[in-house]
C-alpha cells in the first residue's frame, strides 16, 4: 500500500501545483485578501512547494513523517476544493472554467483516496 500511496501523493502534488498555477492566473491573493500581491503569493509558495516535494521523498522512504506530510497534503486538497466551491456558490467568477473545475474536482477525489490510504497506513 505504501507504493500506491507514493503514486497517489505524486498525482495529488501535481494537481495541487497546477491549481496554484491557476490560482496565480485568478489572483487568488485578492480572493483570500492576502497582502503582497503576486510577490507575496510567490514568496509564500517557495516553502510550500519545498514541503510538498520533501513530503514525496519521505513517503517514498516509507517514514512515519511521510505519512504526516501525506495527511497534510490530502487535507490541503480537500480544503482547496471546499474553499473554492464556497466562493463559487457566493457568486465569485474565479475558478469556474472547465479546466479549473476539473483540477479542483480531481484534487478532491485524489485527496480523499490519499487520506484513506494514509490513515490506513497510520493505523496499521
TrEMBL record:
The keyword Zinc does not apply. The keyword Transmembrane applies. The chain crosses the membrane at residues 6-26, 38-60, 66-87, 99-123. Keywords: Membrane, Transmembrane, Transmembrane helix. InterPro entries: DUF6713. Pfam families: DUF6713. This is DUF6713 family protein. It comes from Methanococcoides cohabitans. The lineage of its organism: Archaea, Methanobacteriati, Methanobacteriota, Stenosarchaea group, Methanomicrobia.
Amino acid at each position: 500500500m505504501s507504493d500506491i500511496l507514493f503514486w497517489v501523493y505524486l498525482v495529488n502534488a501535481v494537481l495541487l501545483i497546477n491549481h496554484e498555477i491557476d490560482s496565480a492566473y485568478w489572483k487568488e491573493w485578492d480572493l483570500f485578501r492576502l497582502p503582497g500581491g503576486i510577490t507575496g503569493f510567490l514568496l509564500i509558495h517557495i516553502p510550500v512547494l519545498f514541503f510538498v516535494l520533501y513530503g514525496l521523498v519521505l513517503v517514498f522512504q516509507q517514514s512515519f513523517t511521510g505519512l504526516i506530510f501525506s495527511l497534510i497534503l490530502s487535507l490541503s486538497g480537500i480544503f482547496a476544493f471546499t474553499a473554492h466551491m464556497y466562493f463559487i456558490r457566493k457568486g465569485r467568477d474565479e475558478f469556474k472554467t472547465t479546466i479549473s473545475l476539473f483540477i479542483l474536482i480531481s484534487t478532491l477525489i485524489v485527496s480523499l483516496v490519499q487520506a484513506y490510504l494514509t490513515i490506513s497506513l497510520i493505523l496499521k
